[in-house]
Structure formats: C-alpha cells, structure tokens
Design goal:
Pyrv/PenolPyrv_kinase-like_dom, 2 domains, 17 helices, magnesium, 12 strands, ATP/GTP-binding protein, 387 residues, TIM Barrel, lyase activity, alpha/beta, metal-binding, 47% helix
C-alpha cells in the first residue's frame, strides 16, 4: 500500500517531487506509525464490512479501526465479534489489497478470544486499539496482546486510547501520565501509536466543540493534549507517535463565524467549487485543526467519515520548501552545527535545534511524499478526490 496509491501514476508524477513510499503490514514499526494517516473508524456490526473495507482502500484509506466499543451498543458486542470473524474470513478468501486493520476491544479477554476465532485470517489483522488506557487498566490489555501474539505467531500492535477522566483532571493528570509512560515503555515494541479520545475529554465537562471551533480552541482539552505530547511525544527517542483527535462534523446547516478558508489558494487552480464544497461540509474547521495538530506535534488523525481522509493526507504531504530545509539541515557536513540561510532565502535554518524537526520531516516525506514546487494542498486534495 502507499498514500495516494489510488491516483494514476502520471498524476502522481505531476504532483510529487518524491512520491510516497510503498509499505506493507510487515514494514518496520517506525515507518507504520508515521504512515497511519487518517485512521478511519467503522462499527464492527456493519453487515457488508468487507465490501466497505475494500471500497475505502480504493479511495486512499491505509488504516482502519473496526470498533467493538463506543460505536456499538452493549447488546451488540457478541454480534459484532461474530461479524468480524465472518468478514475477516471473507477478506482472506478474496486476496485483495487491504489497509492496516485494527480492532477496538472493550476488555483484555476479547484479544486472545478474537485471535483464536479468526484462525488463519488473523494474518490480516495489524493489532488492537485499547480504550480508556491508564497504567492500571492498560497493562492487562498489553499482557493479553503479547500472549495472543505469542500463541498465534503473528505480529500484533497496540494503539492505546488516552481518554480517561484521570488524565483530564488536574489533580491526577501528572500521576496518570507517569503511569501511562511506564506501561507503554515496558511494551514499547508493541505500541504503534497513542490515540487521543477528545470526545471523552469533553464529556467530562459537558462540552462539545462546534464546527467553527477546533480542539485547540477548547482550552481544557488543549491543555491535556499539550501535556500528553510533553511527556509521551518527545523527539529524544523516548516518545511515541501521538495522533490527532476525531473531527465530528460532516455538513454545516448554519454558520456563526466566517469561513476559515481564504479564496486565494483556490483561485490559481480554478478550484473555487472545491472551496465551497469544503466549507459546506465543515472541512474548513477540519483543515485548521489538522494544521494545528501538526504544529503541536501530532501526526495522523482519528476519522469517523470517509470525506475526512483526503484532507488529512493532503496536509500531511511535505512541501518542497520543508523538504529543502530538512535536507540542508541533515547534510553530513552540517554535523558540527551552525546557521544557514534556507534555499528559499526566507528563513534561518539552525542545524542543531532544527535537527529533530528535520528528521521527523524526512520520515513524513518518506511515507506521504514531497510535493513539487508548484503544488499545494489544494491540488493534492483535488487530485485525490478525482482519483
């Protein structure tokens, strides 16, 4: 699989200075964690789930979570488990290209049970999403995953969801974060990424952000995300990939504030209709939130609607200017440090302080590609939509 792999090769050649790399479910964890992109959630009870997965793969989705937790009722869990076994068996028989597939479970006991019931089709499974993760609740999940992996002989990753009230409340936040850090560090080889449950954060205070607002505008939410990145997203080798929160909106009926998308990026490519469609479906808020996610150290995003996938991927592509700066900073002859003017002659690149940024940028360039000099996110988004 590869990002923008659903686009014709000649179109990719026009868009990219460096095309996104190909990867598989067996690729190194460091690469996969960066390549997750827009992780699309789907209830595990959908009767045509296998068809849905194949369809979304053809539209550019590279990671999906099949949910047995909050997206379905308590009374539907057994049905959801049975459906997953049927749908995975179906997919295994088709032999088609698939995204990275994860199952969101409710209890540790579900992990070995599902691995056993999936049988040979478990080879299609990349891992499990672990809800409401703290040290106390999370360790049994991680132990169950390790045991299931050993029993099945198939590599399985964990993606803990950080969403518990203890993480949100000021008086317990640091202690909870320290516990989470101990748990995920102990199982570092198994933890692919950490996911943020912002809807649960808001629920603790009876809040819900409007389509004109991002998670970063809700200060109590922004503060906990910042602390998660501070303790768990460091670039010193101890950190993990932390993914962005879900965007809940598909379409806006009435708008209080002005649209947040300027006209100018859309005029050059004659893409005014695309701008209007983005605004109509609340995508201007989503685009702003993605930009703020990345500025604050998050990579990838939880998505609950297919229309959110391409905006996440288009804004994850490395610009030619970013790539040029990162290359300059990482040149072997710059190992001693120093300051240099960027090739775009519009900024200072300071080698030692900017090195970690450059390394992360080059990893993102590997999985999402580098845009040509004259290509921006509007062209990438338009090409992705048209296929």
């Amino acid at each position: 699989m590869r990002h923008f792999g659903h686009i014709a090769p000649e179109v990719r050649q026009r868009l990219f200075h460096q095309e996104p790399c190909e990867f598989t479910a067996d690729s190194p964890a460091r690469l996969l964690s960066a390549a997750l992109g827009a992780t699309l959630y789907s209830p595990a009870t959908r009767p045509r789930l296998a068809d849905d997965i194949v369809k979304q793969t053809g539209r550019g989705v590279v990671s999906m979570v099949l949910c047995l937790e909050d997206s379905i009722g308590d009374e539907d869990v057994a049905e959801g488990e049975e459906n997953l076994v049927r749908q995975f068996t179906d997919l295994a028989q088709r032999g088609v290209d698939l995204p990275l597939l994860f199952i969101r479970v409710r209890s540790p006991e579900q992990i070995p049970d599902l691995v056993r019931r999936l049988g040979p089709a478990v080879r299609l499974l990349s891992g499990f999403v672990l809800p409401k993760f703290t040290e106390e609740r999370g360790i049994p999940f991680l132990e169950a995953l390790s045991a299931a992996e050993a029993a099945g002989g198939h590599r399985l990753f964990a993606m803990p969801v950080l969403e518990s009230p203890e993480l949100l409340y000021r008086e317990t936040r640091v202690e909870t974060l320290e516990g989470i850090a101990r748990a995920v560090d102990k199982y570092r080889d198994r933890v692919l990424a950490l996911r943020l449950g912002v809807t649960d954060f808001c629920s603790s205070y009876g809040l819900r952000r409007a389509p004109d607002m991002t998670a970063w505008d809700v200060q109590i939410v922004a503060s906990v995300i910042a602390d998660v990145v501070n303790m768990l997203g460091r670039a010193d080798g101890t950190g993990f990939t932390v993914t962005g929160p879900v965007w809940e909106y598909f379409r806006v009926q009435e708008r209080m504030f002005k649209p947040q998308l300027r006209r100018s990026p859309f005029l050059e490519g004659q893409a005014e209709e695309l701008r209007e469609a983005l605004i109509e479906h609340a995508m201007d808020g989503l685009l702003r939130e993605i930009t703020l996610d990345q500025a604050n150290g998050l990579l990838g995003k939880t998505c609950i609607h297919p229309s959110h996938v391409l905006p996440v991927h288009a804004l994850s592509v490395v610009s030619h200017e970013e790539f040029s700066d990162a290359q300059d900073i990482l040149r072997p002859e710059r190992g001693g440090g120093g300051v240099l003017r960027s090739q775009y002659t519009n900024k200072m690149n300071e080698v030692k302080p900017h090195r970690a940024w450059a390394e992360r940028t080059m990893l993102r360039a590997e999985v999402f590609g580098v845009a040509n000099e004259d290509i921006g996110f509007v062209e990438l988004l338009a090409a992705g939509i048209s296929g």
